[in-house]
Each structure stands twice: as C-alpha cells, then as structure tokens.
Design goal:
- The structure is a single chain.
- With 188 residues, this protein is mainly β.
- Helices cover 0% and strands 39% of the residues.
- A hairpin with a 5-residue loop joins strand 15 and strand 16.
Length: 188
C-alpha cells in the first residue's frame, strides 16, 4: 500500500446556483387606436425567450376591427369607442409563456361644425350660407336643435345650406346640429 508523503488532499465541492429568469413581454402600454383611422403597433418584443414567438389575446377583447397577429403586431381600423382591456400572450419556441395585460380607450371622434358665425341676412334679399361638419364619418345630416330660423329661410338636412328670402326682420337665435354617419354630433 502506498501512502502520500505530501499528505492528504482536500477536494472542495463545486456547487452552481441557477436563477430562473422569466420570459417577459416588454411593452408596458400600447397607444390607443383612433376611431375610424388605420392603426398599427408592434411587433411586441420579448426578453429571455427563444424565437420564433406566437402571440394571441388570452383574455379580454380588442375593439372590433383591431387584431393581434401571431407575429405580435396590433393593426386594423375600429368603428367602436369605449374602454378596452385585453391580455397579450406569447409562447416561445421552447413552450415558455408570458402574458401582460393592457388597456386603452378609443375616444369618440370630435365632430366639428363651421363656420363659427354666419353673416346677417337682409329682409327681402335672397340668402344662402352653408354650415359644414368635419371630423366624423360622412355623410352628415343637419337639423335645428333649438331656436328658429327667420321666416322664409330653411336648412337643407343633407347639404347644411341655410337659404331662402327672409320675410321677417329682427334678431334670430338658433342652433344647428350636425350628425355623422355613426351618430356622433356637433352643434353650434
């Protein structure tokens, strides 16, 4: 039997510590779509995962017309307004999953009505001025929401034209309302 003159050897144990690093969906928020306008966001980015990635909506709902592609991009055009909450889910090549909730509000369009003031009419003289709407979806319809036009004048419901020959003198106050194709309004 042989023995070592140098003494005994100490063997140190080698231990390794592994930390689990979760895969994450990087976006913390997404911009809100604008009513009735083309929308595009993405693709989402992922940290600590292995491509390729597949995305879907796992909870909640997007507004109609907006979709989340399997590649992680939001796109489309919505005709819906309101608050929306959804959860985006991503699965990587190794089957790892990450989710993140998002919310945004699609605001109603701002319908405008111009001009701010109309020129005065003159008793007995033909008059024609047009009010016009914008900011919503065409076609617009026009109506009186209050007050009365001078006798002899009328408002074209599809044209927005106030025309005729005034047969009464005096001061007249009235409110015109414009209604877009989706029921959004403006008045002046």
């Amino acid at each position: 039997r042989a023995s070592s003159a140098a003494g005994s050897r100490n063997l140190a144990s080698n231990t390794s510590t592994f930390a689990y690093v979760p895969m994450t969906l990087d976006a913390v928020s997404v911009p809100a779509p604008i009513y009735n306008q083309a929308y595009s966001f993405g693709p989402f980015t992922v940290t600590n995962g292995t491509a390729p990635y597949t995305f879907n909506v796992s909870a909640g709902a997007l507004p109609s017309g907006i979709t989340l592609s399997p590649g992680g991009s939001l796109s489309g055009t919505t005709g819906q307004t309101g608050a929306f909450t959804f959860t985006a889910r991503v699965v990587d090549a190794n089957g790892r999953v990450a989710t993140r909730p998002f919310n945004f509000t699609v605001a109603a369009p701002t319908v405008t009505l111009a001009p701010a003031t109309l020129p005065n009419a003159t008793f007995g003289v033909p008059y024609s001025e047009t009010v016009s709407a914008g900011g919503g979806a065409t076609p617009y319809t026009y109506d009186l929401a209050g007050g009365a036009l001078p006798t002899g004048l009328s408002l074209g419901t599809s044209s927005g034209t106030i025309e005729g020959t005034p047969t009464a003198a005096g001061s007249f106050n009235f409110t015109v309302i414009a209604i877009d194709a989706n029921g959004f309004t403006a008045s002046r």
